[in-house]
Every structure is written in structure tokens, then in C-alpha cells.
Task: inverse folding
């Protein structure tokens, strides 16, 4: 284990019981995450990449205790967070934040943007009063590329890219140490994806954040990662630095993912 690792995951497993769907079928065990290990250094972006259904989202949900683990450990600052009760883990939610794939589903449609962003400030006692909270909300909106004048609007009044910026603002306003970004740009148009990726990378570097970036798209992963872990059927089959993964992949599945990256054909000039 690297001495500066913020998160060390050892032999993590998350299993589900499947329900029988036919007269003669029995309940089975689905090993969504099956004995995986990895670490994330301080200030590093580790991307977890694989096709839909490989278990990568379950990893993120397990580490944020949205889904109970079946085994292993996850050491955050050297403390295993997996066996902690929800009440004991609650203070750590400020330090471990998650950006979800669908920003609209994760924003309360009844609340204004100011209310949405101020709520975690009061929960974690990061603002003394509403005036201080309003100033912090204005500041974080500016950091994510939105004007403070949008504070009184509701989520439905924004585009998908703007809503994801608000989701990022809600995470950043509590000054986390680790961000788990679950398919954070996959629901956005390609042109907007690049903007949001650039924003995430800028914030990550400015605040020296650690990040677990979960994606099915190696083309996206190329722009934000320091290291890449490739996941297949619940297991991590290859982990390497970004240059090594893209220039010298070792596992057949990694090669398959690389081959699936869209490439713009070179136009031949007419003679």
C-alpha cells in the first residue's frame, strides 16, 4: 500500500440474492463485486472502467454505504468504514461525496438551488446563518461556471449540463477529500461532456481532491485519470497508469474496450 493513500480497499465483495423467476428456479447468489482491491492516493484520480453490469457502480454505492458490503475492508484515513453504522458514518459523509449519473433525479424539484446547496452547510455546521450560507452558495456557483443569480430558480429550469454543474457544486460546497463520480458525464451531450470533464479536472487539481471516477467509456477516462482499473464481471482484471493502459494493455478485455473507442477516420485528399 502507498503511504499517502487516502483510501485502501482490500478484498471488497458485495453480493446479492437473486429472486427465482420461474416455477423450478431457485434463488441464486449474484457476485456484483467479487474480492477486489485497489487504492487511491491523495490528490489522485483513479478511474474504474468497464461495461454496464460489471459491478463498478456497486463499488461506489458500497463505499458510500448506500449498499452494504459482503466482505473485505475499505480503509479511509486508515479507518475501516464498512462496518460503521449509518449514524457513526454520517460525519464522514462530508469527506466522502458522490456525484450521480442523473443530476435531475438527485436534485429535489421542490427546492430552489439556494436551498439545495445551503442544506448540507447547515447539516455539517459549515455556515453560522443564512447570510453566510448564501455567500458560500454564490461562491461555489461561480466556481462551477454558473451565475449567483440562478439561486432562486428550480432544477427543471436548467439544462442537463447545468444541472450536473449544480450537482458538482453541492458536492464541492462541503469541501470533501474523496469524490466518487458515478458515470458523471454519460447522460450529457458529447460537447457538454468535455466541459464538465474539464470542470471536474480543474476542481480536482485546485483542491487536490482524490477521486474515484466510474465510467464505461475509456475515451472519457483518458481525459481525467491518473491511473485506470479495468473491471469485468465483478473483478478488477487490470490496473495501471493511464499511459500504460492506453499504450500497452495486458488483459484481453482491456484491449476490447480500447478497440471500442470511436475514432474519426482520416480523410484522403483527392489527387
Result:
Amino acid at each position: 500500500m502507498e503511504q499517502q493513500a487516502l483510501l485502501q480497499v482490500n478484498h471488497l465483495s458485495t453480493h446479492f440474492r437473486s429472486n427465482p423467476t420461474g416455477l423450478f428456479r431457485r434463488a441464486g447468489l449474484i457476485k456484483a463485486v467479487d474480492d477486489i482491491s485497489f487504492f487511491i492516493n491523495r490528490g489522485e484520480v483513479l478511474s474504474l472502467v468497464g461495461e454496464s453490469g460489471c459491478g463498478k457502480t456497486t463499488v461506489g454505492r458500497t463505499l458510500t454505504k448506500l449498499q452494504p458490503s459482503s466482505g473485505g475492508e475499505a480503509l479511509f484515513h486508515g479507518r475501516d468504514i464498512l462496518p460503521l453504522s449509518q449514524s457513526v458514518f454520517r460525519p464522514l459523509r462530508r469527506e466522502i461525496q458522490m456525484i450521480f449519473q442523473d443530476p435531475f433525479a438527485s436534485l429535489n424539484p421542490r427546492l430552489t438551488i439556494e436551498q439545495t446547496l445551503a442544506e448540507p452547510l447547515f447539516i455539517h455546521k459549515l455556515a453560522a446563518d443564512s447570510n453566510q450560507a448564501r455567500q458560500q452558495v454564490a461562491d461555489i456557483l461561480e466556481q462551477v461556471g454558473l451565475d449567483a443569480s440562478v439561486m432562486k430558480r428550480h432544477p427543471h429550469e436548467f439544462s442537463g449540463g447545468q444541472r450536473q454543474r449544480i450537482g458538482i457544486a453541492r458536492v464541492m460546497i462541503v469541501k470533501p477529500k474523496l469524490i466518487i463520480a458515478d458515470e458523471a458525464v454519460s447522460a450529457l451531450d458529447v460537447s457538454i461532456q468535455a466541459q464538465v470533464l474539464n470542470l471536474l479536472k480543474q476542481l480536482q487539481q485546485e483542491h487536490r481532491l482524490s477521486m474515484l471516477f466510474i465510467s464505461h467509456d475509456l475515451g472519457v477516462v483518458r481525459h481525467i485519470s491518473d491511473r485506470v482499473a479495468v473491471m469485468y464481471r465483478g473483478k478488477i482484471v487490470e490496473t495501471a497508469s493511464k499511459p500504460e493502459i492506453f499504450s500497452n494493455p495486458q488483459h484481453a478485455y482491456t484491449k476490447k474496450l480500447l478497440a471500442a473507442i470511436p475514432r474519426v477516420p482520416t480523410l484522403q485528399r483527392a489527387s
